[in-house]
């Protein structure tokens, strides 16, 4: 995904990637059982996106308005740095997170899809909306992903940020090598 220069300039400063969960990492639907258990479906490529973000030197955080044990479990599995559940004032949460990490707001990227995300998007250095976000969210975002929420949108966000920082290719190669692959420059060579 190529981005305008003004977006690349913003992306270059990002050190913490903060995201909403429902509608960003999921398609926004919540499946409830009769017993009240909640099911959400996440995209595995977004899981790898979190790993790439971390490897690329970014902090990560989930901020959700829900008090969801599923979101907490997903964050735990992926090793997300911070999780804020039951967040109804996400702009203030973003400020607190940046303070916690010792970073200015301009070093934050925020990914959202709905109205509760607007206050955070207005404050973030890089405001990102998923493709199927509410019109009010798309309107204030610096960029909109091609993918819809839950369909790999986070992967695009990580790629945009790390590419702007000149770190994408090396990060991907390191990830592949770590998992037994060969660095790209030696592809085709005999061992
Ligand atoms: Mg949402």
CATH class assignment: Alpha Beta
Bound molecules: magnesium ion
Kindly give the count of domains: 1
Arrangement of strands in the largest sheet = 5-4-1-6-7-8
User: Which superfamily, in CATH terms, is the homologous superfamily?
Assistant: HAD superfamily/HAD-like
Unreliable sequence segments: none
Strand content: 5-15%
| Helicity range | 40-55%
Rounded radius of gyration (Å): 17 Å
Largest sheet, strands/sense/barrel:
6 strands, parallel
N/C terminus separation: 34 Å
Quaternary structure of the protein: single chain
Question: What value does the average pLDDT take?
Answer: 95
Coarse shape:
globular
User: Remind me, CATH topology?
Assistant: Rossmann fold
Summarize the structure.
The chain contains eight helices and eight strands, in the order αβββαβαβαβαβαβαα. It is an alpha/beta fold and 191 residues long. It has a single domain (10-179), classed as Rossmann fold, CATH 3.40.50.1000.
What attributes characterize this protein structure?
single chain; 191 residues; Rossmann fold; two-stranded antiparallel ribbon; 8 helices; 8 strands; 40% helix; binds magnesium ion
Molecular structure report:
By secondary structure, the protein is α/β, with parallel strands linked by helices. The protein has one domain (10-179): HAD superfamily/HAD-like (Rossmann fold, 3-Layer(aba) Sandwich), CATH 3.40.50. Helices cover 40% and strands 14% of the residues. The protein has eight helices and eight strands; from the N terminus they run αβββαβαβαβαβαβαα. It has helices spanning 5-12, 44-55, 69-78, 90-101, 118-123, 135-140, 153-164, 168-178; strands spanning 16-19, 31-32, 38-39, 59-63, 82-84, 108-112, 126-129, 143-144. The strands form two sheets. The protein has a six-stranded parallel β-sheet with strand order 5-4-1-6-7-8, with helices on both faces. A two-stranded antiparallel ribbon has the order 2-3. α5 (118-123) links the parallel β6 (108-112) and β7. α1 crosses α7. It is globular and about 55 Å long. It starts with a helix and ends in a 13-residue tail after the last helix. The mean pLDDT is 95. Bound molecules: magnesium ion (MG). The site of magnesium ion has 6 residues, from loops.
């Amino acid at each position: 995904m190529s981005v305008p220069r003004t977006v690349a300039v913003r992306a270059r400063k990002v050190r913490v990637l903060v995201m909403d969960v429902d509608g960003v990492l999921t398609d926004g639907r919540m499946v409830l059982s009769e017993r009240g258990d909640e099911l959400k479906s996440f995209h595995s490529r977004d899981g790898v996106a979190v790993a790439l973000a971390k490897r690329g030197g970014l902090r990560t955080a989930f901020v959700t308005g829900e008090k969801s044990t599923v979101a907490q479990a997903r964050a735990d599995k992926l090793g997300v740095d911070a999780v804020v559940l039951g967040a109804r004032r996400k702009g203030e949460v973003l400020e607190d997170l940046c303070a916690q990490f010792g970073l200015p707001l301009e070093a934050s990227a925020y990914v959202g899809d709905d109205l509760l995300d607007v206050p955070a998007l207005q404050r973030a250095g890089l405001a990102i909306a998923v493709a199927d976000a509410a019109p009010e969210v798309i309107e204030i975002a610096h960029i909109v992903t091609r993918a819809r929420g839950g369909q790999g949108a986070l992967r695009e966000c990580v790629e945009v940020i790390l590419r702007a920082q000149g770190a994408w290719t090396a990060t991907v190669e390191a990830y592949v090598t770590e998992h037994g692959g060969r660095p790209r420059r030696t592809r085709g060579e005999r061992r």
